[in-house]
Amino acid sequence: MPVAPAAASTRLGDRPSPVRSPQFNLPQLADLTALNIQLLDTQALSPDRVDDLIEAQQDWIGMLHADWLVERQHWQSSVNSAVVPQCTTECMTLNAYIEAIAPHDYRAMAIACHLVWSHTRCVTILGLGRVRLLVLCDAPQQPTSMVAFATNRLHWTPRQLVHYWLLEHNEAWKQVLRSR
Question: What pTM does this model have?
């Protein structure tokens, strides 16, 4: 009689399973320029620069600082189904937005043999428009180090976004890719 496989644990504190995730074709280092992606650090990211990139039809990834303003929408509906749900919008700093993220909204992700926690969502950032926001931290309950990225590619996964950023900005990562 066959034995049923053990159920995978999905608790927040558990480490990700060693089972490999489905692979997608990531570009190698030489292909990054062919993708037409501009990587912007916190000093280079500005509304004017993003407008120029949009006009040039270039994709971009930018590292965000804590003072960017994020629009947060709240939908309220009543018990009466005849009433149309109401949407209210408030602006908050990126830092306040990150503090409001619940620990269970983070997902574990391995980057170069290190476990990090990621949260991603499409949001509107004043001056940048509708973007995919990615927040990476070391621990979702009490993060001690955190970084936030934004991109105009709304369909990218956290893994793709980090991969493209590390291709350009991490010398150790470049060495790993060149050795493959």
Answer: 0.71
